[in-house]
Amino acid sequence: MAGTITVEMGEIWVSHCPDERLVAVGLGACLGVCLYDPQARVAALAHVVLPQTPPHPTLFRGQVVPSLPGKCADTAIAALISRSVERGAAAHNLRAALAGGAQIFSPTPTPAAPGGGGGASLSRLEIGPRNTVAVRDALAAEGIAVLAEDVGGHCGRTLTLCVRTGEVLVRRIGAHEQTLACLGLPHSPVTLERAVAHEL
Fold first, then answer.
1. Among the four residues 29, 101, 139, 145, which has the most C-beta atoms within 10 Å?
2. CA nearest to 31, candidates 92, 101, 85
3. What is the spatial distance between Cα 69 and Cα 48, in angstroms, rounded to a whole number?
4. What's the Cα-to-Cα distance from 90 to each of 85, 153, 190, rounded to whole Å?
5. Active site residues per annotation
6. What pLDDT, on the 0 to 100 scale, is given for residue 178?
7. Mean pLDDT, rounded, for 36-62
8. What is the pLDDT of residue 138?
9. Around Cβ 60, how many Cβ atoms within 10 Å?
10. Which pTM does this prediction carry?
11. Are 167 and 179 within 8 A, CB to CB?
12. Phi then psi dihedrals of residue 43, to 5 deg
């Protein structure tokens, strides 16, 4: 019987067990990042919460709370690649798929800069779009192609990665589950339309 591994917020999970499915539930502004090596059949999933590690550590009763490796995009991608390689993947064989990064809160308009212009950068409340940009940049820096994505908009999603085949499934709230891509194929077809980062 296939086992379902739920990857919680900030977590990373890597598997080479063919009967396992890695699942990130309730992706709102969070971004689910799938990596897959089609030759080694190694699958990895990160549940990214924030685009960047906060400048100051989180404290609880005066003690520093350790940050989960998959919590922030600037650390999650490197950790995901490293753990995949430890399980037998080759970094140059990895391909990616993304889902989530929704705009949950209404952004505060960015004030125009003196002398005109301004307003083009993402506001601090636009966590979902900022997560997507940060993850794309981190993957590009590592030379890993994003073969499929279903990101942005205003709806939550559940993301599933099947270890045996590299199939990536997405279920939006109120909709049926659909195949986003099969990362185990030589050419991964995208069957869901790419969602724009800012839906009107």
1. 101
2. 101
3. 9
4. 6, 33, 23
5. 30
6. 96
7. 84
8. 97
9. 7
10. 0.83
11. yes
12. -120, 145
